[in-house]
Structure formats: structure tokens, C-alpha cells
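retry 2 of 3: previous attempt timed out while embedding zinc ion. Reduced batch size to 1 and resubmitted. Inputs unchanged:
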Amino acid sequence: MLYPHDSHPTRHHSAVRVAAPRTTQAEKERNTLLEVAIMSDLASIWQSRAREAYEHAGPALVAGLQAELSARIQALTGRKVDPKAIYAEPGSRKATATMDGVTFRLNKNELVLVRPCSYCGTGEFESIAIEDLRTLGYALHEWHPNHKDCEESDPAEYLYNYDF
Ligand SMILES: [Zn+2]
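retry 2 succeeded.
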């Protein structure tokens, strides 16, 4: 005579439970090395993607800086500088052009004049932002940058004597 519960197989209760495989120290170290290798692969992937994007953007950035500086100079002076003759550094977002002996620079979207020290003739100084003919006039005619050690007279005269 069969009882319903007899139909359940019972011999599985006697099955030996298999212990989960233990990870040895050597395996752990190998896994860690593998993870590090994967992580550094991932790091180099996004970094090289970024570099590629930058390198592809380079020529476009240079052309953009050249066109922008040329347009700004033309808007101010009515004179056109050939964009291709403009030196541009896409990394620092600077572009520099010399026209009629005056050096203009676009520095992170701000137009300035560049002059050497008016005393010793060396170095490179950037003027205030040139926004219109008035500020251009100031930078051209009234701005006399000096090295600190080259000061001939009170620099306050240059800094504070001119009101707009
Ligand atoms: Zn000087």
C-alpha cells in the first residue's frame, strides 16, 4: 500500500553537499591583477577617445580662432587680416595677429593688444579688453606697459590718469 508521501523521493537527503570551491590566495591575486588590467584598459580607452576627439577638433578650433580674431579686427578697424596668417593655439584658445605694427590677441574670447615693455623693449604685456574704438584708442596711445624693474616714473600715472 502506497501513501502519498512515499512517492516523494527521499534518497536525495543523503546526497553529500558539495562545498563551494575555495578561492586560493594565488587565485585572488590573479583576479586582482586581472581587474587592474581591465580597469587600466578602460582608463586608456576613454582617455584615447578624448585625445582623438581633441585632435579631430584641433583644426576646426584653429580655424574658428583665426576667423574670430580676423572678424574682431575688421569690425574695429575696417581692415582685414588674412585668417590663415593668424597664429592660433587651440590648447590655450589664443590667437595672435599683427597688423600695421600693432599686435592683437584673442585670449579666451577677449580681444587685447600685446606690447613689449615700453622701457626695455622686451617681454609681452596684454592690454585691457578692447571692446570698442575708445578702448582701442586708450590701448594704442595711452597704455605704456613696464616691467616692475623698468619703471621710469610712477606707474600710477599710467593706471589712473585716464578716465573713460
Ligand atoms: Zn622692461
